Amino acid sequence: MGASFVPITIFTVLWGVVGIVCPIFAPKGPNRGIIQVVLMLTAATCWLFWLCAYMAQMNPLIGPRLNNETLIWIAHTWGNPYNNGTK
């Protein structure tokens, strides 16, 4: 399983709009610069967090831990009967 082009593009565009387009429409006033910076930093950090979470799913560090009974049941259900290591 590799990275898919579609979700990366969609979320990059989404957070790009939040970080680039939304600051343009910040209300005028003494805190306009702060609001713009907050929007840009929010977009950058949320996009980076999403990207890390998305990439972590591609190659997980740990897998599910199953006990022997579950493994035997799965092998039997999938048509590979458990035979205690003999052929």
TrEMBL record:
It is found in: Endomembrane system; Membrane. Keywords: Hydrogen ion transport, Ion transport, Membrane, Transmembrane, Transmembrane helix, Transport. The keyword Transmembrane applies. One of its GO terms (molecular function) is proton-transporting ATPase activity, rotational mechanism. It is a multi-pass membrane protein. GO terms for cellular component: endomembrane system; plasma membrane proton-transporting V-type ATPase complex; proton-transporting V-type ATPase, V0 domain. InterPro entries: ATPase_V0-cplx_e1/e2_su (IPR008389), ATPase_V0-cplx_e1/e2_su_met (IPR017385). The keyword Cytoplasm does not apply. The chain crosses the membrane at residues 6-26, 33-56. Belongs to the V-ATPase e1/e2 subunit family. Subunit of the V0 complex of vacuolar(H+)-ATPase (V-ATPase), a multisubunit enzyme composed of a peripheral complex (V1) that hydrolyzes ATP and a membrane integral complex (V0) that translocates protons. V-ATPase is responsible for acidifying and maintaining the pH of intracellular compartments and in some cell types, is targeted to the plasma membrane, where it is responsible for acidifying the extracellular environment. V-ATPase is a heteromultimeric enzyme made up of two complexes: the ATP-hydrolytic V1 complex and the proton translocation V0 complex. This is V-type proton ATPase subunit. It comes from Parnassius mnemosyne.
